[in-house]
Description:
It is a single chain. Helix content is 29%, strand content 18%. The chain contains nine helices and nine strands. It is an alpha+beta fold. Helix 3 runs antiparallel to helix 4 (116-125). Strands 1, 2, 5, 6, 7, 8 and 9 form a seven-stranded antiparallel beta sheet that branches. The chain has a two-stranded antiparallel ribbon with strand order 3-4. It has two domains: 3-71 and 131-235, Replication Fork Single-Stranded Dna Binding Protein (Replication Fork Single-Stranded DNA Binding Protein), CATH 3.90.198.10; 94-128 and 240-316, no CATH class.
Amino acid sequence: MSLESIRERNKNGKLDKLLKAAGRTSLGKKNNNNSQDETYYPERDKNGNGSCIIRFLPGLDSEDNPYYVERFQHGFQHNNKWFIEFCPSTLGLECPVCEDNFDIISEYGGWNDCPEDVQAVIRKRGRNNGFGAGNFCNVLVIKDPQNPENEGKIHLFSFGKGIMDMILDMAQPQDDGLGKIADPIDVFDLVDGANFKFIIRRKDKRADYSKSSFEKASPCPDVDFETQHALLPLIDENKFKSYEDLSERLNKVLNKSNKRMSKNAEEALNGSDENAKEAQPDNFSSHEAKAAESPPTGDGSDEDNMKYFQGIADEVNI
């Protein structure tokens, strides 16, 4: 499913704002920090299961109606040292970790030519939407069985690729095999949007959201929209360390002085996998990372290389 195909299907502009949001990661820079980083998440029982019903909200008029903002980070462990930092690519800036990953891939000639253990290292070091990062938006809590006091209130909400795919599936419904295609729905729309049944199940020691789904289109209940959270401060440049500071931290974690990560470092990082899983917060990873597609053919220019790496980075994302 491509964003271009969705745009073509919705030339009337009904979903223009949603698609515009889905096609960008940086929505601007401001000088103030946001103290509202705490996001809503329904309480889970002893088995790790939980549920709620929420409504995605379109955002503040003062922020040019951004539906959501996306914030990337890197989070991995090496030699009992953690590197957990926001990725400057969120703002379209250079990142030493992304560059180092690209250098390793280029050394082998391409992603598919990298040994599996090296691919595993790149995935661990890749950008992700894990704990402290992801897509951020405002939601109205419609029903919260465990904490009904949240109902009727607006909260900041963070979600990853799985839920984003569900949102885009609503924006461009697929043929059900019987020749029927449902009308596209902008789930952020206050009149013609839809409530979201957020269902959490514990699966393989992770929170699994695959049972979640959108209900039929319905108007949004009355709510005090003045209580919405500003989204742009979440990607304020002051939240991101400089390229130099990130490089220094990366070298300390990897125990190296040169830019290239040595084979020994690769092996050591790869061997720290089990320790890393134990040390990560429960919701550090919401979905399984997957391998990238075969690299496209091109003339080998820097622009082609960066497009190729961007594709790998997007696939490695949660």
